[in-house]
Structures are given as structure tokens and as C-alpha cells.
Amino acid sequence: MMNRRPSPHARQAAPSSEQPRSAGRLTPRLRPVLSLLALSAALAGCGASSPVHYHTLQSPAAQAPGGAVAPASFLIEVQPVNISTQADQPQLMVRTGEGSLSALYSERWSSPLGDELRGALSDALKRELGALDVQLVKLGPGAAVWRVQTDVQRFELEPGRMAQLDATWRVRPVNMKGSGLLCRSVVTEPVAEEGVPAMIAAQQRAVVSLAGAMASAIRGQTPAGSASVQMLGCAALKD
Fold first, then answer.
1. CATH number for the 70-236 domain, one of 3.90.870.10, 3.20.20.70, 3.40.50.10610, 3.40.930.10?
2. Residue 68 pLDDT more than 90?
3. 8-state DSSP, 192
């Protein structure tokens, strides 16, 4: 029996009839994958070219206004600070217009923003009052303490314009005589220069000014407003 050899035309036709189907089947699936890989590479390149800078709200050590302060006969307990979710982000959130915020992903807080505020308030109050924070010492039975609670409604950073801290706060004596006070303060500090360091410095000053109002209440004085501090009212706390 004679074997039939396939026609040259048949050999050439077979690949050409299958190739278009294979290409048409893979190309639509590959395109989004390749696009995603290209986007990931571009983002990785951007991240590598922008080093991350970390910032703190704790001001450089400075002497309290009026000179050295005598050691206090009480301790302070600065409790964790409550802050709005909008502001409580690891990166700096800056206002870029009416109702518009921008995240500076390469500019970050050195610790969660609530912890930054608690630590900065504690440092400022220790300098103002000459008191230690209970986190640093072991409390004895019946120790005299002033408890400080802070709720931050607004924490604003606006480049070249201002830094603002809007907070409701309470100071209350524990195991000692004194009157507790509930107040609301809006602290606004100007930012005269462009750049992140100027905004951070302004917000550091705002925290120190807020601590000054708290210290006045702990001393038994009525917190007074100033060029940067607007007092929106105080009320006595019930025992």
C-alpha cells in the first residue's frame, strides 16, 4: 500500500489556522497583568526616590516662662488623648483648600498622633508646674494627683498659613483639695514660612500654649485667652 504524504499546502495551513485563536485568547488576559506590573514598578520607583522623614510634637527642652519652677507637691496624670480619625493618620495631613486635605506620605509622625500629643502635653505641663507624670514614678497610697483628659476635635496644618489645635479638656484633682474644670480651647499659631518644619514648629507651640491654659486651671486660676489661645468657655466639674 502506498503511504500518502500530506500536501505542502495542508502542512502550512494547520499552524496558520490555530495561531490566531491562541493569540486572541491570551492577549486580553495579558494586557491588564502587564499594566499592573508597569504601575507597580512605577510606584516602587517613586517610593525609592522619596525618603521618609519623621516628626515629633515634643518641643526641644526649654525652661518654663519666668525661670525655674519649684517642685510641685502633687503629680500629674496625662491620660491618652482622643483625636478625630481624620487627623489620626501616620502621615501628615495638610489642608490644601476649602474642604480639601492632602496626605504627605513621605512626612510621618514618629509615633501615633495621640501618643505624640500626650507626650508633648506631659512634657509641657511638667515644665510649667514642676510636677512629675505618674507614668514615670510609682504611686504611693493616697498620692495627690491632677488628672488631665483631652479630646481633640480639630488638628490642622496649613502650609504657609497656620497650625490649629481645637480641644476640649478636663483637669480634676484626685486625693487632694481643688476644683475640677472642663474647658474648650482653640489654639492657632501662624506659619510664616513654607515647608514642613515650619508647620511642625507651629503645632509644637500650639501644644505648649494649650498646656499653659491647663496649668492655669490646675493652679486654681481662670484660664485666660491670648493672641494664640481662644477660650470658648469653662465649667466646674462636679465631684
1. 3.40.50.10610
2. no
3. -
CA distance 161 to 177: 43
The grid coordinates listed for 198 are 515650619
Count H helices, E strands: the chain? 3, 9
- pTM assigned to the model: 0.77
| Sequence letter at residue 129 | L
Confidence of residue 22 (pLDDT cuts 50, 70, 90): very low
Q: Three-class SS string for 101-130?
A: EEEEEEEEECCCHHHHHHHHHHHHHHHHHC
Identify the helix (H) or strand (E) that includes residue 167: strand 162-174
Residue type at position 14: A
Start-to-end C-alpha separation, the chain: 115
- pLDDT of 104-117, one tens digit each? 999 999 999 999 99
Give the integer Cα–Cα distance in Å for 61 and 120: 11
What is the Cα–Cα distance from 148 to 172, expressed in whole angstroms? Answer: 7
C-alpha 184: how far from chain center: 20
Domain locations in the chain as residue ranges:
70-236
Range from 56-70, 81-95, 199-213 carrying the lowest mean pLDDT:
56-70
Whose cell is 510649667? That residue is: 128
User: CA dist 114 to 22, 85, 175, 185, 194, Å?
Assistant: 58, 10, 27, 17, 25
Report d(CA 117, CA 131) in Å as an integer.
18
